[in-house]
Amino acid sequence: MILRFPEFSRDMRRGDEAAVDSLLAETDRVAVRRVAALRRSGRIAGETVLPWQGEIVGYYALAGMEAPEGCLCLAALAIAPDWQGAGHGRRLIGMLSEWARLSGRSVVARGPGAFLERAGFVPMEGAGLYVAGPAPEASALVFPPDMAPRA
């Protein structure tokens, strides 16, 4: 196994969209449509990439929740298949978790609990969701369209 280390994560820049969409298509086809819809609606709150030698090998997107105001949700996460299993996703989301804690912003996520917990998220009581930063009341959460947890 050859160890490779990506560059520092950074905000997505104009011109990165095609590389990000390609990465999403390779790892999560549903996320391609979700991110495109969130971009069109203006609900994307931030997009972060993990670059390496001109490529995008990691990505996450945050979207603003409908409620409570100021709460964010993890809309997409992707790590290139060749880069999976080396801890890059955990570090990327771990930095997001620490940002949420330090800034006092709530970031809600759903997904593999063990992964999210290793990255600093904590389970929300009885909600099947995880949060970094201050925990909002689960009953108050209103996700953006197409992002509501499935029953």
UniProtKB/TrEMBL annotation:
CDD domains per the UniProt record, alphabetical: NAT_SF
Keyword hit for Transcription: no
Pfam families attached to this UniProt entry: Acetyltransf_7
GO molecular function: acyltransferase activity
N-acetyltransferase domain segment(s): 10-148
Claim: Transferase is one of the keywords in the record: yes
Gene3D superfamilies: 3.40.630.30
Ranges in a coiled coil: none
UniProt keyword terms in alphabetical order: Acyltransferase, Transferase
Enzyme kind, highest EC tier: transferase
Annotated InterPro entries: Acyl_CoA_acyltransferase, GNAT_dom
UniProt EC number: 2.3.-.-
Protein name per the record: GNAT family N-acetyltransferase
Species name: Roseovarius aquimarinus
